[in-house]
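Methods — Computational structure assignment.
A single polypeptide chain was analysed. Its primary sequence is given first, followed by the predicted tertiary structure written as structure tokens.
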Amino acid sequence: VLMSAVAFCGSMQFVAITLLTTSFDPIQAFFLSLMVNARHIFYGLSMLDKYKGLGKVKYFLIYTLCDETFSITSSINPPNNINRKYFLFSISFLDYIYWILGTLLGSILESFITFNTTGLDFALTALFIVLFIEQIRIKENRLSGIIGISCTLISLFIFSSNNLVIPAMIFILISLIVRRKLPCH
């Protein structure tokens, strides 16, 4: 529960179990953390304008920017009569509290749950597919989606499936930064 509150990044929490149960290699831990959570760089870049001008609450919003929070906050705007800062804060705060309470509830109830979880690991892959589809449904996001797919395919072709993640992320990051700097954007 403490880890869920402090290290608010679900996928890294699963990886941390391995890191905590094997001999500690700080360089490996750093690169593993970077690879597992690199998508947050892209989330953060795309949220720069949305979080602009929110004062100190912006730091909490950045800290709690996870897959689910990004999916919600990037695709909706607050109603006209709702303050944008409190709207975004409420979404982020609720996601954060749900994660901590879910961890607490899971740790209490895990001994009572005895069903076979084979195949459940696909749920994370399915989550990312759904998040991607929801994002590209928005016309303004389609070019970013095409950039992501293209850079990944180029990396696959050049580096093979065993080594494509880091190069693809670098290509995507460079492409998105260049796109942001273009005067037509």
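Note: The chain has two domains: 2-137, 138-185.
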